[in-house]
Amino acid sequence: MRARPTTWRPGLFLLGGAAMLCQPGTVYAQDDGEAPVLGKIEVTAQSNDILVQDGYVAKKDRIGTKTDTPIAKIPQAISVVTQKQLEDQKPRTLDEALGYTASANPNSFGFDTRYDAFFLRGFPAFYNGMFRDGLRQYNGPSAWFKTELYGIEGVTILKGPASSLYGVSGPGGIVNVVTKRPKDEPFHEIELLAGEHNRFQAALDASGPVNDDGSILYRFTSLGRLSDTDLPAYPDDKLYLAPAVTFKPDEDTRFTILGEYSKSVTGGTAAFYNSGYGVLSNIYEGDPAWNDFTQSQGRIGYEFEHRFNDVLTVRQNLRYNAVDSDIEYSGHYLPGAGQPLEHYWGHYTETMKNFVVDNMAQLEFDTGPVKHTAVGGIDYAWSDYDAASGLSYVSVDDIKAIPVPHSGGQQMNQLGVYLHDQMEWNDFTLFTSGRYDWVDTTSTSADFSQSKQKDSAFSGRLGLSYRTEWGIIPYVNYSTSFSPNIGFVYDDVTSAVGRVARPTIARQKEIGVKYEIPGHNATVSAALFDIGQKDGVVLDASTNVNKQRQLDLNSRGLELEASASLDNGFSFIASYTYQRVRIERGAEGTDGKELSATPNHILSLWGNYQFENGTLEGLGLGTGVRVAGSSYGDDANSFRNSARAFVDASLSYDFGTRNPKLEGVKLQVNAKNLFDNQKTICSAGYCYRDEGRSLVASLRYRF
């Protein structure tokens, strides 16, 4: 039996004193000449600072343009996972949160809570497509920054190349996680959660003004969790602490400090033994005596904004973050025909550090009849990872005793300058964005020899939209991306000799339409896209030791998406994606084939209904389905993965609708994969297993 770190257990109880913070108040509304009536004010968790949202519908965002711009005006496809969606669906990982987003595919590697490994428009976005609060957040080969969903207030997904503003990023787009920020009004929340596999979690979120004039705001978000999973000796434990402070000396100045510390322990191995090519067995690869993936991560940074006048606003955003990973993993191998399976054990450690600072100036002015909102800036990013790896074919005691030798590292320095101008004339909006990046990379091999590489490139975006008299907004855009790659690649994955990866470049053509339905809190959108990529990096799992290789791809597709939160208590999200991702240049025998584990058809639909009157007042019902069509199991297209469908559901009850003394108390039950549909999914010839049904119940008190 695996011994759990006893020092973590107080993390579950550090929240117990939160109920002492304040007592719930009753709010009354009174019209002249009428008796007082009870008026209910809904308390929401989001701050609406850089992502403005209303239920399931996002209204305004800063990520697409680096200015606060209505999403309908941005001539590029953007999806948003709002705070309300996160609360209703209760996803446990960022992968799960993206499950209802058009062109997002988080289902290529089966059950694996170690990483958030998702694809956008057919391209991997988990290394260089991760952003937090508008700043890039590089992942190392195995030291990935994990997102605690309780600590965020939304996720913005900008589809397609985005290097014209954000520099180094991937062809499929970027996923920007928005951290919970201090709120102007008092907000307090306690949540207790329990589920199958001995899952126990407690969380606290508190925010509001510190002083009487509201010039200092705070927020403190924390979570403690102890949990098993359906895999033996595979935990899912976490301690998460995130303080934040905002200083507002006047209405034109804002300075926010954002911090985080978290420590997690998951399983080191999530895979099952592949008994043949494309054949998954029931033999779990993990050894209960050697199966912990311990990770510590932290970040500290700030956001500064000052508005000088109606024309000029300046901002500086800065962050440093680091992650330290220690992975105990194991697997099986067949020493020879007719012989029994043997075990091997591995030990991998890695540290990843990032620093990034973004300085920008925003100008608002007119040139004749044309209204301009322009942004110019310069940013700098530094990243450094260092790894060590050891392997034993003897025993657990042997892998514990042997030192972990250095296996490689890389340091990257990136400097970028950019300029963006969004011009409005009558009902036309024209976006022009341009950026130039210089990147210096130093790679260190296992023998500590070094090689240096310099890359530079221009990235651009040109987009045009037109608002018709009916409120329908058609648009067109052309955009490019540029991304030097961290790590080594192998042209021959059976060889021990690798090379520094070449930068990935891509170009996209997109045409689409957006529509905000008049009189309703609802939006619909459609987009056609064509992306060509050169020198992309993918993981090749065809050998026992996963290695990266490079290839050229073309992705074409159609996206349809809709979201709404209506006055009658009904909210829904719907999306459909058709995409074809073809290998233009890849491993031998794969040219012209479709990329593995990439279905041509992806469909999702989620609806939630809150009864607002009558006998069932306070009851909430939600259900959704995620459907992924069949796909190929390897890049040679020699066999197929079957189509899969997962049904999710939620049931909630708001006790405050019947009893004012219980206002803010909500009980909720969520089910993932309600019908326990477990299938095999193979990617690049290696096969994984989907997670079965998961049930959790939560009790929340918000005041």
Uncertain runs: 1-39
Strand content: over 45%
Number of domains: 1
Name of the CATH homologous superfamily: TonB-dependent receptor, beta-barrel domain
- Average predicted confidence as pLDDT: 91
Rg value: 25 Å
- Named CATH topology: Maltoporin, Chain A
| Biggest beta sheet attributes | 22 strands, antiparallel, barrel
CATH architecture: Beta Barrel
**How many DSSP H or I helices?**
5
Write a brief caption for the model.
This protein is mainly beta. The strands form nine sheets. The chain has a 22-stranded antiparallel barrel. About 5% of the residues lie in helices and about 55% in strands.
Produce the secondary structure layout:
Layout (H helix, E strand, L loop, with lengths): L9 H4 L14 E2 L7 E2 L12 E4 L2 E5 L7 E2 L7 E5 H7 L4 H4 L6 E2 L13 E2 L2 E2 L5 E3 L2 E2 L15 E8 L3 H4 L6 E7 L7 E9 L3 E11 L6 E11 L9 E15 L2 E15 L4 E5 L2 E6 L7 E16 L4 E22 L8 E26 L2 E23 L3 H6 L4 E20 L2 E17 L5 E17 L5 E12 L4 E2 L9 E2 L3 E13 L5 E19 L6 E19 L4 E16 L15 E10 L8 E10 L2 E2 L7 E2 L2 E11 L10 E8 L7 E4 L2 E4 L4 E9 L1
